[in-house]
Amino acid sequence: MILPLSSDTAVEVVVDEAAAGTRLDTFLASHFPEFSRVHLRRAITAGGVEVDGRGGKPAYRLKANQRVRIVLPEIPREAPAPENIPICVLYEDDHLVAVNKPPGMVVHPARGHWKGTLAGALQYHFGPTLSGSGGPTRPGIVHRLDRDTSGVILVARTDQAHSRLAAQFAERSVQKEYLAIVAGVPERDRDEIDRPIGVHPHTREKMAIRTEPGAGRPAQTFFEVLERFRGFALLRVLPKTGRTHQIRVHLCHAGFPVLCDRQYGGRAQITRDAVRGPSDDAAVLLDRHALHAHRISFRHPATGEPMTVEAPLPDDLNTLLTELRADCQ
Question: Which residues is 49 bridged to in the sheet?
Answer without folding.
Answer: 70
